[in-house]
Amino acid sequence: MARSTMSARDAAEAAFKKTTTKPVEAAVATKAPAIPGAREQVSLRIDRDVLEHFQANGPGWQDRLNAALRKAAGLA
Q1: Distance from C-alpha of 46 to C-alpha of 44, rounded to nearest angstrom
Q2: Is 56 left (phi over 0), alpha (psi -120 to 50) or beta?
Q3: For residue 61, which of 6, 12, 24, 33 sits 20 to 30 Å off, Cα-Cα?
Q4: Secondary element (H or E) of residue 72
Q5: CA distance 68 to 74
Q6: Region Disordered: start and end of each range (predicted)?
Q7: What are the distances in angstroms from CA 12 to CA 5, 18, 49, 54, 72?
Q8: How far apart are CA 74 and CA 76, in angstroms?
Q9: Residue 45 phi, psi dihedral angles, 5° rounding
């Protein structure tokens, strides 16, 4: 019988590595495509006077703020 060229420690490490290493495909998370018109909930810190300006006209202030941000970003 021929002796293995790999030490017991190397063999154990190789076996452990095989069972604990994640496949490359699973390591890369893929983001689902965005749904057109869907909105993302975020936390945003803005100046009090800016918030008051958009809230002054009542309900719909978030839509108005979103529209202003889209215009400023060149998306509208």
Answers
A1: 6
A2: alpha
A3: 33
A4: helix 61-72
A5: 10
A6: 1-21
A7: 13, 10, 64, 64, 59
A8: 6
A9: -100, 120
Cα–Cα separations (whole angstroms), residue 23 to 14, 30, 41:
15, 14, 32
Q: Which of 28, 35, 40 is nearest to 69 (CA)?
A: 40
**Residue bearing the bigger pLDDT, 70 or 2:** 70
The residue assigned the tokens 């983001």 is: 31
Q: What is the pTM of this model?
A: 0.52
Please count the structural domains in the chain.
1
The verdict on residue 63 lying in a domain is yes
Q: What 3-state DSSP class applies to 22?
A: coil
Q: Which residue range forms the structural domain that includes residue 67?
A: 43-76
What tens digit of pLDDT does each residue of 1-50 get?
566 677 888 888 888 777 776 666 655 566 777 787 788 889 999 999 99
AA identity, residue 58 = G
> Is there a domain that residue 38 lies in?
no
